[in-house]
């Protein structure tokens, strides 16, 4: 299904209607625009973070995901200059490292070598092809068919993401 995102704006919250290429209307209470837009970091240039923005508009981070030379400012996700694909599951990995590092910083003013390091990932993606099949691009090979389709869950990680975000479903389950 192709979703026409034209004219939907940049909002993430609130009820929105989308029209598929088949003319079907899909209502959503939460959406994320993931259409290859450039990083919207221009406003950061006028802040204390401006000196840490690279030519591509991304924040320069170290191996602990700290911005520039700042000891207590971190960045995660697409805005970082980490040399890897900009994908949601990688942003979740960034968040795990940063949350651990923030906990360490809050507990003590210990030396930097105790902070967790983030290691950039090699490109990997799985795209579903109907109900049972998929295509996977892995760092060492590509697969197509039923095997990659079995690996990716039927709900496309929606239930896992909802649990991680603490979002309850209509029936109260996460």
UniProtKB/TrEMBL annotation:
Superkingdom classification of source: Eukaryota
Molecular-function GO term, any one: flavin adenine dinucleotide binding
GO cellular component: cytoplasm
Pfam families referenced in this protein's UniProt entry, alphabetically: Pyr_redox_2
InterPro entries, per database record: FAD/NAD-bd_sf, FAD/NAD-binding_dom
Domain FAD/NAD(P)-binding residue range list: 18-84
Record's protein name: FAD/NAD(P)-binding domain-containing protein
